[in-house]
Every structure is written in structure tokens, then in C-alpha cells.
User: Fold this.
Amino acid sequence: MNIIQLPRIFALCAALAASLLAGCETQPAFQVSQPSSRVGTVESIRSQTVQNNNATLGALGGALVGGILGNQVGQGSGRTAATVVGAAGGAYAGNRMASGSSLVWIIGIRYDDGSLATIQQASSPAVRIGDRVRVSNNGMELLPNR
Assistant:
């Protein structure tokens, strides 16, 4: 056996052992999943101003757009200068546009099992305190009065 082939054989044995051991994993006797939706009562609704954290993404996007637009101007070193100025101006503008704050609505819900949850959304909620709602992955649905 050649010494150069020894690491290859070791790697092959390790891969074979790993694949055999992966097949030995025991399956659980039962599986628990979260319910697809939960029902509860709206307990609180409030608005809050939050800071946007997309300033870096805005600066990068602005620099990209500014650089592309600046590259369309002039020829030679003038084009290079226009590209650099366009990228810098776009980065500044993108940063200013992406930073700032926005208004969000925070809805407090007490589920029927007694647990509490808060839901945050950008639009004004179409519910009032005391309304019965169903919360799922698709959003919040107002239930008819009992």
C-alpha cells in the first residue's frame, strides 16, 4: 500500500461510517406540531414608532444605482469621475431614504388557553379591544360575535 493512498482510504472509511451511523437514528414515537391557528381575545391595541434599520441596505442600493447612472455620462476619465460621484451621491441619498422611523401597531391577544401574544403590523388593525380573533400564519381574522 502506498503512503499517498492512506489519507484517501481513511477519508473513504470515515464517509462510509458516517453514512451507516446516520441510518441508525431512531425516529420519535410521536410528533408534536403547533396548531395551524389559535383563537383568542384582543386585550390591547397601541401604536408605536420604531426606527428603521435598513440604512446600510439603502446606502448600498443607492450607491449601485448612482454608480450605474453615473457610468452613463461622459467618456474615459470623465466617465470614471461621474461613476464615483454618482455612487457617492446615491449612497448618501439611499442612506437618508432608508433611515428614519415608521409607525407600527401592536395588538395584545390573550388566547383561549390563557397564554399571551403580541402581534405587530404596519397597518391600522381592523379589530377593537374585546374582539374575538383567529391568529394563523396568514394573519389575524376577526371572528363573528357569539
About this structure: Strands lie at 37-51, 101-111, 116-121, 132-136, 139-142.
